[in-house]
Backbone:
């Protein structure tokens, strides 16, 4: 049922405040006196120590699920201290790449039925790795055949283009990072900041009960009172809701789509946490709007892609505030110097800081700033909206793109 929406992809993009809420529900907890804020992942509780002790964590997936793992990789490395490597499932199997007993292999799949990912799982099991599943589908082959796992609880995703599952996968993997790093005193402040950041992403209607965060005046402005089921308790709930805020860019992205409708190609540059945003944004555009699009690591720009830059080719640069911001500013300057046609995704209030020659030199999409490791959840949404509107305007089937299936169950 599409409800008030015309397409499933549109519905699934717009229901992300709710899908993210269900992903987090019951998993963020107030701990004892020494740990004020913590994460509980029931499906992993007997295995978390083994994961912490692994020699390596290997993320394995395809398409959007691979991109979600790539977005989460830096925070897992930071909080766990365990080296993380990335594997596209088919490539791991083709190479028969090394997987060891001391490895934790994490299989990320919305459907839990992707043939390539299942073959990689079989291979990792044969090699004795601890196998963890991250899926949206209870009872799926990956959920059944891994040693333990986490369901992302994003709700049924019908559009072939994965949207809400992507953001829920990132949030689940951020929670995985918090759970693995839970015993390190040195990163406690960082972990608490991330938990606060998770709290600020979606509507907190369902979270308020399981987590007691102190409110500031800004939060109080958004406060509402919810009746919490049988307990007859009324608690304030925070409505900070960064995801709902970024969804308000819908019309702006439709206008941008009108400008890009006849283009042949689109490049997307990102780095750090948002290299994944570049790959995933480009994947969305190409798979539904059938426009050629490439996501690129901005650090690689001078090693080839710069040759493509001219006044015609549209280029999206992700330049929200994080440790890579100044490097992205310099990428923008270099693209600008070559008359690049720039569209910059930046943090709210940063338009002047990212547009070298003022607003005439580039188009700016301002998004709310959140904790750096959660920023990919916010940043992908304008690109999902752009892909959706481009497709509708170009007259293609947005929910069932040419030649694609929702679940790829053959090799
Ligand atoms: O069900 P899975 O997450 O394993 O599917 C993996 C890919 O086939 C899938 O993400 C595909 O790339 C999507 N259509 C992208 O939107």
Residues:
């Amino acid at each position: 049922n599409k409800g008030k929406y015309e397409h499933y992809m549109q519905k699934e993009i717009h229901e992300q405040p709710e899908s993210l809420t269900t992903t987090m529900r019951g998993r963020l907890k107030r701990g004892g006196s020494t740990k004020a804020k913590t994460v509980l992942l029931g499906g992993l509780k007997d295995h978390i120590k083994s994961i912490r002790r692994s020699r390596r964590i290997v993320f394995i997936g395809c398409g959007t699920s691979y991109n979600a793992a790539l977005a989460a990789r830096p925070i897992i490395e930071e909080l766990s201290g365990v080296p993380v490597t990335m594997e596209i499932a088919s490539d791991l199997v083709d190479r028969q790449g090394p997987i060891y007993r001391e490895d934790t292999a994490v299989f990320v799949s919305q459907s839990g039925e992707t043939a390539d990912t299942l073959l990689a799982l079989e291979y990792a099991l044969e090699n004795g790795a601890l196998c963890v599943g991250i899926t949206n589908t209870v009872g799926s082959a990956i959920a059944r055949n891994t040693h333990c796992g986490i369901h992302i609880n994003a709700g049924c995703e019908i559009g072939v283009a994965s949207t809400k599952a992507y953001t829920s996968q990132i949030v689940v993997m951020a929670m995985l990072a918090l759970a693995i790093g839970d015993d390190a005193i040195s990163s406690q402040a960082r972990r608490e900041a991330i938990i606060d950041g998770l709290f600020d992403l979606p509507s907190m209607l369902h979270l308020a009960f399981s987590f007691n965060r102190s409110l500031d005046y800004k939060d109080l402005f958004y406060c509402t009172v919810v009746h919490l089921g049988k307990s007859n308790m009324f608690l304030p709930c925070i409505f900070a809701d960064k995801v709902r805020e970024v969804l308000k860019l819908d019309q702006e992205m439709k206008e941008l789509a009108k400008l890009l409708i006849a283009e042949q190609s689109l490049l997307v540059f990102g780095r750090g946490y948002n290299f994944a945003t570049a790959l995933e944004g480009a994947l969305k555009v190409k798979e539904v709007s059938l426009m050629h699009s490439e996501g690129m690591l901005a650090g690689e720009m001078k090693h080839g892609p710069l040759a493509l830059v001219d006044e015609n080719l549209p280029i999206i640069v992700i330049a929200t505030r994080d440790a890579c911001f100044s490097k992205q500013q310099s990428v923008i300057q270099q693209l600008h110097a070559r008359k690049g046609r720039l569209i910059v995704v930046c943090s709210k209030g940063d338009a002047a800081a990212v547009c070298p020659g003022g607003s005439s030199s580039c188009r700016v999409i301002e998004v709310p700033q959140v904790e750096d490791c959660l920023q990919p959840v916010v940043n992908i949404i304008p690109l999902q909206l752009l892909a959706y509107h481009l497709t509708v305007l170009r007259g293609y089937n947005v929910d069932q793109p040419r030649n694609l299936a929702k679940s790829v169950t053959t090799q």
Remarks:
- The two ends are 31 Å apart (CA to CA).
- Confidence is low (pLDDT under 50) at residues 205-240.
